[in-house]
């Protein structure tokens, strides 16, 4: 009998019951516009204020006014980067430093700014996905406006040394932004202790609703607005507030952080360790990607030689398993993930990637089902693979396979 195992929590997470219950009254009874003066407007306003306080508390921000609600993580990243370099605080400085393994919300914002005349440096990462701090020190100048480096990577789970990065940025008068969309609710974060000037987060990555996020902006930093209009969110993200979303974000971040975090991390890490051990023991010619120690507790990322990630995902789906791959033909891209390329995996091998990301709602039974089925599917695909010969990968055939691959498009 098929189970259903959702193991793609880095893509999104199921909304929790407590978040849903917290949101409900603001979708039904208290639908007022928070700018309206009558009671249901005031109730909505009060709920937004409370949600903002919860987000500020979870990050150890000094003041709730440092939290700007946005329409999700991508919007928070865009506001931080574009808003900063175009804003008053940059004082005309234009240089941006980021890394090669950022989410596209950061990478493509930087590429767009490059076309507008902002010089951008894309830092290399090592084989485990850590940004090169020596390279950061060598490229940063007093003309660097912004350093933007993600807290934890969405494909391989590697956690960056945020404090070390912020210290280097600050020593040169640059501001430090971090895309913490994968990190919030999954590892401890403290904007003051870590020297973070701006931080992006998104509710749906920690059991909140989709389409709502926030940007922490340290007091004193003046950004150029993302959207002009009614002046909501201190004029930075105009538009009638997504009240229910903000309430959901507040509830989700309260549930996911504080005293609940350590226990959840321990539980999820134990499941992930079992999964990684099971797969590495059962399947030869497998690479475990990312930092084996300093990583998100729920992220298990592999590359299996001699198979294609897309076929793997489709066959796992038939077994009721949701996972993901960095080699996304379906998204129209010929190249394997930019993250797997940046950590130095050979092109042919990087096509066989699998990311399984666990959450608090997964169980040991889920993990055993994952191990059993991933093993079966990899064996099946290898048996059909032209580059799998006599029980091992035949690298001389790999370039032929890759040529085939291109011909399909
Ligand atoms: C999911 C994700 C985003 C985008 O967040 P959305 O709320 O989906 O816009 C940005 N950065 C990282 C690292 C992510 O994992």
UniProtKB/TrEMBL annotation:
The cross-references to SUPFAM superfamilies, in alphabetical order and at most eight, read:
PLP-dependent transferases
Class of the enzyme per the UniProt entry, highest EC level: transferase
MF terms from GO for this chain are: 2 iron, 2 sulfur cluster binding; cysteine desulfurase activity; metal ion binding; pyridoxal phosphate binding
Q: Where is the Aminotransferase class V domain?
A: 5-370
> Which residues are responsible for catalysis?
329
Under InterPro entries, the record lists:
Aminotrans_V_dom, Aminotrans_V_PyrdxlP_BS, Cys_deSase_IscS, Cys_deSase_NifS_bac/arc, Cysteine_dSase, PyrdxlP-dep_Trfase, PyrdxlP-dep_Trfase_major, PyrdxlP-dep_Trfase_small
**EC annotation from Swiss-Prot or TrEMBL:** 2.8.1.7
Q: Where is the protein localized?
A: Cytoplasm
Q: Which reaction does it catalyse?
A: (sulfur carrier)-H + L-cysteine = (sulfur carrier)-SH + L-alanine
User: Could you tell me which residues carry N6-(pyridoxal phosphate)lysine?
Assistant: 205
Q: Which cofactor names does the annotation list?
A: pyridoxal 5'-phosphate
Residues noted as binding [2Fe-2S] cluster in the record, renumbered to the chain: 329
Q: Which residues bind pyridoxal 5'-phosphate?
A: 73-74, 154, 182, 202-204, 240
In which pathway is this protein known to take part? Cofactor biosynthesis; iron-sulfur cluster biosynthesis
Give a Gene Ontology cellular component term annotated to this protein.
L-cysteine desulfurase complex
* Keywords assigned: 2Fe-2S, Cytoplasm, Iron, Iron-sulfur, Metal-binding, Pyridoxal phosphate, Transferase
Any single biological process term in GO: [2Fe-2S] cluster assembly
Describe the subunit structure: Homodimer. Forms a heterotetramer with IscU, interacts with other sulfur acceptors.
Q: List, alphabetically, the HAMAP family matched.
A: Cys_desulf_IscS (MF_00331)
Q: Which NCBIfam families match?
A: FeS_nifS
- State the function annotated in the UniProt record: Master enzyme that delivers sulfur to a number of partners involved in Fe-S cluster assembly, tRNA modification or cofactor biosynthesis. Catalyzes the removal of elemental sulfur atoms from cysteine to produce alanine. Functions as a sulfur delivery protein for Fe-S cluster synthesis onto IscU, an Fe-S scaffold assembly protein, as well as other S acceptor proteins.
Query: Could you say which protein family the record assigns here?
Result: Belongs to the class-V pyridoxal-phosphate-dependent aminotransferase family. NifS/IscS subfamily.
Task: Spell out the protein name for this chain.
Answer: Cysteine desulfurase IscS
Q: Which organism is it from?
A: Butyricicoccus pullicaecorum 1.2
The lineage is:
Bacteria, Bacillati, Bacillota, Clostridia, Eubacteriales
